[in-house]
Amino acid sequence: MFDIKRGLEILEKNIKVAPEAPGVYRMIDENDKVLYVGKAKNIKKRIVAYSHINKLPARLQRMVAQIYRMEFIVVESETKALLLENELIKKLEPKYNILLRDDKTFPYLSLNINDDFPVLKKYRGVKKTGYKYFGPFANVTAVNNALDLLQKAFLLRSCSNSEFKNRERPCLMYQIKRCSAPCVGKISKEDYKKLVEEAVDFLEGKNVDIQAQMSIKMQEASDACDFETAILYRDRIRALTNVQQGKTTEYDNIKSADVIAIYVQHNCCCVQVFFIRAGQNCGNIAFFPKQVQGAGTKEILEAFLSSFYANHQLPEEIIVSEEPEGLEFLEQALGVKINTYKKGAKHKIVQNTLKNAKEALERKMALETSVLNNLQEMKNVFGLKNIPQRIEVYDNSHIQGSYAVGAMIVATPEGFDKKSYRTFNIKNEEITNDDFAMMKEVLTRRFDKMTAENKPDVILLDGGTGQLNAVHECLKDYDLSDIVIIAISKGPERNAGKEFYHLRGRESFSLPFQSPLAFYMQNIRDEAHRFAIGTHRKKRGKSVFVSKLDEIEGIGHDRKKKLLNYFGSVEAVSQANMSDLQKVSGISKKIAEKIFNYFHK
User: Fold this and answer.
1) Of 40, 61, 92, at which residue does a domain stop?
2) Are residues 348 and 419 in the same domain?
3) What is the mean pLDDT of residues 579-593?
4) Is there a single domain that holds both residue 554 and residue 537?
5) pLDDT tens sequence across 387-430
6) What angle do CA 520, 461, 420 make, to 5 degrees?
7) Looking at the structure, do residues 534 and 411 belong to the same domain, yes or no?
8) C-alpha angle with apex 314: 199 to 129, nearest 5 degrees?
9) In whole angstroms, what is the distance from residue 303 CA to residue 17 CA?
């Protein structure tokens, strides 16, 4: 039972001892579970607000009623408070915090500006010193399109350093006029540096004079009858024109901004983010925060900004559809202005972002309604106690026993939960031609790690009654209460839509042809099949790179790559003498001796 009076008494006691400093506070219930994690510039002043119970929404009133104790962590600044809050929310997933499921890293374009001939490439991960980064881009397609156009316009190399050093003649990229071939001296260091400077200026929005300068150089080359150079400038101008076509006048005055809009409907929420860099739209992405029931848009927006920018690079300006709670704190913690606009070009961009948020939420709600209807039908048809919240689907993949893997995918009312997908390399090589034995190994390893949180409601298998009985037999020592095991097999003609379903204690049956539930069951089974085959292909692909060099002590991935780039094959490495081996970068005399002795035992 919730007790608001008791919760307020505990809150008052904590207010008396709370620090008047920036930091993080935790509200904890009597079962020692964290109810809420919050940040504040002044912890004491912040938690005083919770004592005004009548001003709180019903959701936070319930939270106050459950408080049993509180904990405080004092930090040096608002920025550290924000980072610590985000870290604790991700770790503890408190019941009353708005949660953002965000483990996405966005792609960037990078230039290693300290190199003599910098390489332009796409990049994900931690930012390194000595590099310039441009982005983020919302997805790989957006960054690939940008890279393609920039290669045409600025002719910067995209090859690896080892390829660059070992080139003796220009590659295909030079032939199709997407690289200036600095690897073989087709361009000087100084001229290549000018290309880099032009590319950086363009990516930073300082591109007013670039096309004009190219036009002048094209005309000069033409007047000098250097038509090859003139054609090169013409193609570069065309490429820049194509880039410009991706721009709209409404973005012209925006150098670096994220435009964020929030839309809430029926206790569901979408936060849409547009990335605008150097006057260009670098794509957009939709987020759907969890645990937003009863929360207002300002509170949700504050939680989103805190979580999102704890993990992602900040722009020069954040433009929002409405002012979030804790605006002053967020601006100080992030070091960026957070603005709203009621008119003008930026207001129009916000309205467009809001429209996208609305449409994305409506699509998601329509999809989830469809999935929920299928799950309700599944409950009725298969005799389940409740609508399944976690369906695990298993499949195996191998080629005549080679590279055998098992795969598990997870389907929920919200769709496929790809974070919960698992792969299993079959450890017992004697069973890789036996599908029953492989499935037994996979399920045994899976159920050895089963907890109350990841216990499935339904297990779906690709197979018939034999597979079904084998699985029941191998799991007989585990708690299968409230778990329904279903096997799905092709019909006599092996046509999709005419599958048979097998359960213990029931005759096998099929679903009405082309019924929504039949399509749903096929979809989740095919997803497991796709994932299993994809995992198998990756494993098989990796085996291509396993060679005798991997057996030599001290030869890791980098040294192996350098040896193969230099000699061309493992056979050529095996025939090399000591002096030739030492010519390879990173191969010392000691390492060369190990390689030579390995091949000349």
Assistant:
1) 92
2) no
3) 87
4) no
5) 999 999 988 776 555 667 888 899 999 888 888 898 888 776 66
6) 75
7) yes
8) 55
9) 26
Specify the residue for token string 């001796």.
Answer: 593
377 pLDDT exceeds 90?
yes
Q: What distance, in Å, lies between the first and last C-alpha atoms of the chain?
A: 77
| Structural domain for 578, as ranges | 548-599
The proportion of the chain whose per-residue pLDDT surpasses 90, expressed as a percent, equals 30
User: Of 532, 521, 534, 588, which Cα lies nearest the Cα of 559?
Assistant: 588
pLDDT in tens, 133-185: 888 888 888 888 778 878 877 888 888 887 888 888 888 888 887 888 889 88
Amino acid 305 reads L
Q: What is the DSSP string of 73-93?
A: EE-SSHHHHHHHHHHHHHHH-
Phi and psi (nearest 5°) for 48?
Answer: -60, -35
Q: Is residue 144 part of a domain?
A: no
Among the listed ranges 89-93, 162-166, 362-366, which one has the minimum average pLDDT value?
162-166
**What residues have CB less than 8 Å from 381, skipping those under 6 apart?**
511, 517
Domain endpoint, select from 76, 92, 108 = 92
Supply the pLDDT for residue 544: 46
The predicted pLDDT at position 115 comes to 86
pLDDT average, residue stretch 89-106: 85
97 neighbors 73 (Cβ within 8 angstroms): no
Counted domains in the chain: 4
Residues 562 and 526 in one domain: no
Domain CATH number, residue 18: 3.40.1440.10
Q: What is the CATH number of the domain that holds 296?
A: 3.30.420
The H or E element that residue 509 is part of is strand 509-510
Query: Listing from the earlier edge strand, what are the strands of the sheet with 280-287?
Result: 280-287, 268-277, 256-265, 317-320, 337-339
Residue 230 belongs to a domain? no
Position 437 pLDDT exceeds 60: yes
DSSP H helix total and E strand total for the chain: 20, 19
Identity of the amino acid at 417: D
Q: Is residue 185 part of a domain?
A: no
Distances (CA, A) of 287 to 229, 264, 360, 449, 589: 48, 12, 9, 31, 55
Q: Which pLDDT score is estimated for 207?
A: 59
Is 372 inside any structural domain? no
Q: Which residue has the tokens 């048809």?
A: 381
For residue 355, the model assigns a pLDDT of: 95
Is 52 strand, coil or helix? coil
Return the structure tokens found at 265: 């409907």
Q: Is there a single domain that holds both residue 354 and residue 416?
A: no
CA-CA distance, 562 to 578, in Å (whole number)?
16
Measured CA distances, 414 to 195, 276, 284, 375, 553 (Å): 48, 30, 21, 11, 48
Q: What is the overall mean pLDDT for the chain?
A: 84
